[in-house]
Amino acid sequence: MITIHLNGETREIVDGIDLDSLVDKLSLAAKRIAVELNGSVVRRIDWPGTVVNDGDKIEVVHFVGGG
Amino acid sequence: MSDTFELAGTNFTSRLIIGTGKYRTYDEMKSAHAASGAEMVTVAVNRVPLDGSSESFLDHLNPTIRILPNTAGCYDADHAIRTARLAREALETEWIKLEVIGDQTTLLPDNEQTLDAAKVLVKEGFIVLPYFSDDLIMAKKLLDAGCPAVMPLAAPIGSGMGVQNPSNLRIMRERLPDATIIVDAGVGVPSDAAIAMELGADAILMNTAIAESRDPASMATAMKLAVEAGRLAYLSGRMPKRLYASASSPIEGAIK
Hints:
The complex is a heterodimer.
Chain A: E1 2-6, E2 9-13, H1 19-25, E3 34-37, E4 40-42, E5 57-65
Parallel strand pairs in A: 1-5
Antiparallel strand pairs in A: 1-2, 3-4, 3-5
Chain B: E1 5-7, E2 10-12, E3 16-18, H1 26-36, E4 40-47, E5 66-70, H2 77-91, E6 95-98, H3 111-123, E7 127-132, H4 136-144, E8 151-152, H5 166-175, E9 182-184, H6 190-198, E10 203-206, H7 208-211, H8 216-236
Parallel strand pairs in B: 3-10, 4-5, 6-7, 7-8, 9-10
Antiparallel strand pairs in B: 1-2
Helix pairs in contact in B: 1-8, 2-3, 6-8
C-alpha cells in the first residue's frame, strides 16, 4: 500500500495503480473533469500508464455553480 | 440597430454575462438563464467530492451557452494559474475569468497577483478576462499584458451595492476608448446595471443579483432590459447636467 494526498485527504491505495484506475474508482458522474499530479495537469490521454507513487499530491476537479 | 459585442474574436448579441452560483434549484437557474438572454455563463472549478456524490453540474446548462470557467477561491497567482490550466484541460476552452482574491471578508481582488497570473496565462494562450479593482492604471497594465478585456468591479462580490465609484468607470471609458470593459460584481438591481452601461461599460457580469432574488427568471428579464436600456442611452449620448433649470416649453408666447 502507498499513501497519497487526494483532494486534500490522505488515502491509502494499492501500489501500482495508474491515474485512469484511480479516477475510475471515484465513480464520477461528471465527465468533464481534470487531474493534477504534484502541481501539473496530466492530460486525459496520459492517465493510463501514469502510475501513482507514494506521497503524490493529486487534485481531481470538476465544475460547480459560480459567478 | 445592430450593436453586437465583440470579445476576443467572438460576437455576442447579449451584453449580459451571468453566473451559475447560489441558485436554489437547477430549474430556477435554467429559467433565469433563458430569460436573461445571456450567451455566456460562468462556472467554478472545484474539488470532486470523494464520497461518490459528485454530479455533472454542466449537464444542467443549456448546451448552446458558452461556458466561462473562473478561478474563484484563489488567493495567489500560482493557484489561479493551476486552476486555469485544469479548467482548460477539462472544458477544452482557452477562456478564463481570472479572479485572485486578496481578502476573505471583502473578496476584493489582489491586483498585483492578478497581473502576475494574467501575464503567465496570456503567454500560455489563454483568453484572460481579469476581475480587478476599478482602477485605470491597473486596467492599462492588464491590457498591456494581453488581456482582451478588463473586468472592473462595481462593488464587492455579492454585495449588491451598485456602482460605488462612477467616476472611475467614466475615467476608464474615456481614457481607454478602444478597450472592452465588462463590469463584474456588485450589481444589485437593474438600475445599477443601467448606470454601469450608461457610463460606457461594454457588458456586465452578475450572479447574486439574479440568483438571490425572489424570482430569478423575472429579475433576469429586468436585468436584460436594463443592460439594453443603459447601452442604448450610452450610444444616444446623455444631456448635460445643469445646476439650474432649462425650460422645455417656450417662454416667449406664454399668455400674460
